[in-house]
Recover the amino acids of this structure.
């Protein structure tokens, strides 16, 4: 028994060593194995995310992550720090995401990730975040030198991405109602990539027009826009067809308030006018009636003319009848002009009342006859 | 001659003493007929003008000339016929009222009664000319539509209506002369002379008023 005592003490000693921690023990290993900033480069005031990957490098031992936070003065961290995250098994990884908001100064910033784990060294890790507010560029790629009223003009716009990252949802919206299409969607635009969009513009009036386009895109989830204004000087075509009405006559017909308008339509321009159609314009108390509600003239060559005929019913108050002239050029562009025809009603034929002078004449004649008859009977 | 207008009783009383003569009455009726002929000439011109898009220009010019002259001649002949017809009717009606006298005398006195219608015809012709010179002449493609246009003018146009009313007034004046004329020519009482003339003139006036659309 006495020989066993030293052996028992040795055993207890060994057990005691293994069950009690001692100063200078090696701590568990936790590492930041990766990070991701989305979008890759933020613009002013953009909101993005920073995602870090934390990995337990131990082969057998779990590590309990206590707290993780991201700190930076220039970049605002919108999300709260992670607290009591939980245990990370051996070899396991964990992604931690932080929401950030960019400031107003471009540059590269290094927000610090502070990670605190039980039985592990605290981790301080700097993550580079780039703020670059360079916008997309939009410009005119092609535009005709001369823009003519009523003719379709193709305008090509180029959109470039000088940013270091890809942007999405790129589209150009036209503000002018005479622009077709009103919107062109271009989708994703990679860094240093350029895409071209085409618009067709048909000006209806002469003079200076300002075309306004809005370029819209997304950097991550953040919408951005840029504007482009293009001043244009719209002129009349020097060669286009020029339709002139001559020999206009307005004649009353058998039908009440129905007039027949006849005349000649002449092409005084240097180009052909195709599909020329004459119509009675709209207006209060004006109604086109059969048999010629509209008159199809067809092709009208330069220096050529054609007769036309229209039937219109007008109210008593109407003094002018609008005539609408529509035609197309060789490219199918539709042109329209309106001419007004005055209605002159002859008082003697349209008035339902006798002029005062005529009534006076009638009264004088009646009195004269009555007087003469009375006199003849008196002298009988 | 002025007496026939203002004092027809005295005029016809004096004429009864003279021989029956149709020279002056014929002249009066011819003048009246020629004035009616002028109006007919104008109306023919305006009627053919409606067909200016239907007829070729040469045909239109020829038709205007021939038509106008024909209308003039027809109006003159028509006036002479109406004179005779009126006299015959007066003679017949007065015969029923036991009137006595020759038809020639009746024809003579009825002819004198055309004098007011010369004045009335002149005024109506001036008014008609005024209407034609300012009217919007519609184009018609179907000649049957011409009657419709003229009816519209008769019933709707104040100048044409005024012309018709004046004709009626002067017809009343003529009727007054005829009353005294028949009284002497057919030896009627004033009452019977009034009835004789009144029946025919009333029919004529009613027809004229109906043409104006007042009774339509």
């Amino acid at each position: 028994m006495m020989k066993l005592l030293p052996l028992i003490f040795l055993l207890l000693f060994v057990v005691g060593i293994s069950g009690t921690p001692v100063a200078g023990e090696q701590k568990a290993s936790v590492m930041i194995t990766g990070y991701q900033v989305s979008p890759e480069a933020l613009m002013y005031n953009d909101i993005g995310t920073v995602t870090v990957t934390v990995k337990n490098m131990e082969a057998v031992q779990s590590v309990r992550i206590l707290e993780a936070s991201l700190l930076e003065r220039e970049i605002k961290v919108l999300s709260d720090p992670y607290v009591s995250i939980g245990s990370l098994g051996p070899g396991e990884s964990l992604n931690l995401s932080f929401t950030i908001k960019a400031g107003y100064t471009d540059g590269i910033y290094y927000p610090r990730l502070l990670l605190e784990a039980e039985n592990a060294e605290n981790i301080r890790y700097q993550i580079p975040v780039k703020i670059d507010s360079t916008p997309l560029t939009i410009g005119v790629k092609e535009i005709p030198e001369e823009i003519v009223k009523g003719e379709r003009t193709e305008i090509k716009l180029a959109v470039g991405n000088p940013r270091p990252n890809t942007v999405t949802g790129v589209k150009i919206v036209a503000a002018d109602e005479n622009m077709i299409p009103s919107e062109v969607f271009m989708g994703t635009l990679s860094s240093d990539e350029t895409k071209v969009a085409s618009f067709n513009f048909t000006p209806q009036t002469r003079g200076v027009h300002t075309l306004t386009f809005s370029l819209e895109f997304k950097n991550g989830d953040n919408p951005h826009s840029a504007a482009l204004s293009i001043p244009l000087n719209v002129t009349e075509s020097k060669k286009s067809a020029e339709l002139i009405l001559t020999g206009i006559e307005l004649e009353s017909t058998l039908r009440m308030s129905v007039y027949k308008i006849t005349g000649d339509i002449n092409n005084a321009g240097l180009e052909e006018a195709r599909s020329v159609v004459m119509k009675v314009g709209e207006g209060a108390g004006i109604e086109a009636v059969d048999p010629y509600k509209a008159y199809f003239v067809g092709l009208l060559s330069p220096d050529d003319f054609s007769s036309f005929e229209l039937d219109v019913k007008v109210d008593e108050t109407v003094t002018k009848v609008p005539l609408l002239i529509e035609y197309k050029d060789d490219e199918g562009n539709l042109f329209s002009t309106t001419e007004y025809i005055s209605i002159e009603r002859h008082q003697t034929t349209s008035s339902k009342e006798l002029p005062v002078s005529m009534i006076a004449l009638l009264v004088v004649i009646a009195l004269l006859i009555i007087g003469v008859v009375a006199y003849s009977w008196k002298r009988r | 001659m002025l007496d026939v207008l203002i004092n027809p009783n005295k005029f016809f009383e004096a004429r009864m003493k003279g021989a029956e003569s149709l020279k002056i009455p014929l002249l009066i009726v011819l003048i009246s007929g020629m004035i009616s002929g002028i109006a007919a000439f104008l109306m023919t011109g305006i009627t053919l003008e409606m067909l200016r898009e239907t007829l070729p220009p040469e045909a239109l010019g020829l038709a205007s000339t021939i038509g106008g002259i024909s209308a003039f001649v027809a109006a003159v002949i028509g006036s002479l016929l109406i004179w005779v017809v009126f006299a015959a009717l007066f003679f017949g009606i007065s015969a029923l009222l036991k009137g006595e006298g020759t038809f020639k005398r009746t024809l003579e006195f009825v002819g004198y009664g055309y004098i007011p219608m010369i004045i009335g015809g002149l005024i109506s012709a001036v008014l008609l000319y005024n209407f034609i010179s300012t009217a919007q002449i519609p184009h018609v493609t179907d000649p049957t539509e011409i009657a419709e246009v003229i009816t519209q003018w008769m019933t709707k146009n104040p100048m044409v209506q005024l012309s018709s009313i004046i004709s009626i007034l002067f017809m009343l004046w003529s009727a007054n002369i005829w009353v005294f004329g028949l009284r002497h020519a057919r030896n009627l009482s004033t009452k019977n002379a009034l009835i004789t003339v009144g029946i025919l003139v009333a029919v004529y006036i009613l027809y004229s008023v109906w043409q104006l659309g007042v009774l339509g």
